[in-house]
Specification:
The protein contains 18 helices and 14 strands. The chain has 480 residues and is α/β, with parallel strands linked by helices. The structure holds nicotinamide-adenine-dinucleotide and uridine-5'-diphosphate-glucose (UPG). Keywords: NAD, Oxidoreductase.
Length: 480
């Protein structure tokens, strides 16, 4: 029986391995982590991450051919294929701080693999890593290997949160990069055989190691670039009376462009886009390509601009101050159908409003009070380290309350900011909400999910990203 071990039981390691176990009953899969609470949660009824469809997959395989354990060394030693899916945060100190990937966790995993292994292994990069990481990892593995042979493969993951199970069941492509040697080809084939249990052959792409590593960074950069492009257009739409939804529909009808990923928003969030673009920028700089680095940097600059612009719209609409005003924040996760708040635009928007002394009442159906308080007090990039290494939040932000209901959050509020596109926000009783708010009552829709005309009819002053402006907002300063 082939044995797989995955180091890192996070958003990628957990769902990916659960699906491999489900689709390959003949393979034994162990997911290991240094975080005891995380592994305990994977072994309980309350999984550590919220992902539609995940519970059912885990329940079907756990205890049969899917195991979650903190006994990292034992499972690595026994495995034929070791996936490494640990954190690769942005460096906060030293060379490349604020841009380069911090490979501390990857390196320690590689050293441990070399130390405990007693048989040949295929080591698979599942984490997103800088191009050429495999070379460094190979050096660590072969230096300490006592004659054991390791083949390193790059197999980046393309799942998106909220649709992870769907994406894993039916991936656009599976990418496997390996050394172009007989041993390398054999290792690539072994991993191909795993995916071939459920992925069509023409969707399994094989490349050299460096192409696979770089393709992951390139894919995220392209995706984020589309969002920054449409968000840049949204500012121009507001200035000219065009409607960004109509513009992106018209643009996306061109089959060369395509309709997906063209929704204007308060900005993109999530653990990957910003981190991976910063990483790409750093790699370009290190390779003497400052113009290319500058090009990609702009995607992040526009994203920051969009978040600032949103805060400025809120403040300027409300008589240029939100001091001591209650603002309801609907949605804190970085997108719907996840409880993940990593790099969520809500953090920057909330911090911006708190900077102007607003009182915030936050509701998100999946995010806990503790998480929100941690996010609002944590330093940039601290979130991307294993849980037990993250600082506990010693202080709470007093002007922030978290509630478990949108009606409670909006009661007596002066304004509402919609920051996540949860389906339930579309069906709220806005008449009831309006009646319980201070007047004039404002809605700032950062996800373009409300029916603007209906809300204006009720009496709200509405701002919706990239849409023709409410008369109230027309003479207000719009620049960030
Ligand atoms: N989240 C996504 O949607 C996504 C998608 C594709 C790729 N990625 C990439 O995958 C990687 C993992 O992302 P994630 O979101 O799953 O992160 P995560 O923080 O959810 O999980 C990483 C896990 O690795 C564990 N870990 C760290 N060092 C360890 C070690 N030495 N031994 C054992 N366990 C260790 C941590 O405790 C943590 O539980 C990152 O490189 C990320 O960029 C993420
Ligand atoms: O038209 C759009 C599409 C997305 N977003 C925002 O962009 C962010 C990222 O969304 P999404 O890409 O759906 O989620 P992620 O889970 O971050 O997935 C991305 O990052 C992963 C980690 O690398 C990759 O594996 C995925 O392919 C890639 O889509 C979220 O804040 C979305 O709200 C928009 O604002 N407009």
């Amino acid at each position: 029986m082939v044995k797989i071990c995955c180091i890192g039981a996070g958003y990628v390691g957990g769902p990916t391995m659960a699906v491999i176990a489900l689709k390959c009953p003949s393979i034994e899969v162990a997911v290991v982590d240094i975080s005891v609470p995380r592994i305990n949660a994977w072994n309980s009824d309350q999984l550590p991450i919220y992902e539609p469809g995940l519970d059912a997959v885990v329940k079907q395989c756990r205890g049969k051919n899917l195991f979650f354990s903190t006994d990292v060394e034992k499972h690595v030693r026994e495995a034929d294929i070791v996936f490494v899916s640990v954190n690769t945060p942005t460096k906060t100190r030293g060379l490349g701080a604020g841009k380069a990937a911090d490979l501390t966790y990857w390196e320690s995993a590689a050293r441990m693999i070399a130390d405990v292994s007693k048989s040949d292994k295929i080591v698979v990069e599942k984490s997103t890593v800088p191009v050429k990481t495999a070379e460094a990892i190979e050096k660590i593995l072969t230096h300490n290997s006592k004659g054991i042979k390791f083949q390193i493969l790059s197999n980046p993951e393309f799942l998106a949160e909220g649709t992870a199970i769907q994406d894993l069941f039916n991936p656009d492509r599976v990418l496997i990069g390996g050394r172009e040697t007989p041993e390398g080809n054999k290792a690539v084939q072994a991993l191909k055989d795993v995916y071939a249990h459920w992925v069509l052959e023409d969707r399994i792409l094989t490349t050299n190691l460096w192409s696979a590593e770089l393709s992951k960074l390139a894919a995220n950069a392209f995706l984020a670039q589309r969002i920054s492009s449409v968000n840049a257009m949204s500012a121009l739409c507001e200035a000219t009376g065009a409607d960004v939804t109509q513009v992106s529909y018209a643009v996306g009808k061109d089959t060369r462009i395509g309709p997906k990923f063209l929704n204007a928003s308060v900005g993109f969030g999530g653990s990957c886009f910003q981190k991976d673009i910063l990483n790409l920028v750093y790699i370009c700089e290190c390779n003497g390509l400052p113009e290319v680095a500058e090009y990609w940097k702009q995607v992040i600059k526009i994203n920051d601009y969009q978040k600032n612009r949103f805060v400025n719209r809120v403040v300027s609409s409300m008589f240029n101050t939100v001091s001591n005003k209650k603002i309801a924040i609907l949605g804190f996760a970085f997108k719907k159908d996840t409880g993940d708040t990593r790099e969520t635009p809500a953090i920057d928007v909330c911090k911006g409003l708190l900077g102007d002394k607003a009182r915030l009442s936050i509701f998100d159906p999946q995010v806990t009070v503790d998480q929100i308080q941690r996010d609002l007090t944590m330093k940039k990039f601290d979130w991307d380290h294993p849980l037990h290494l993250q600082p506990m939040s010693p202080t709470t932000v007093k002007q922030v309350t978290c509630v478990w209901d949108a009606y409670e959050a909006t009661k007596d509020a002066h304004g509402i900011c919609i920051l996540t596109e949860w389906d339930e926000f579309k069906n709220l009783d806005f008449k009831r909400i309006y009646d319980n708010m201070q007047k004039p009552a404002f809605v700032f829709d950062g996800r373009n999910i409300v029916n603007v005309d209906q809300l204006r009819e009720i009496g709200f002053i509405v701002y919706s990203i990239g849409k023709p402006l409410d008369a109230w907002l027309k003479d207000m300063p719009a620049v960030a």
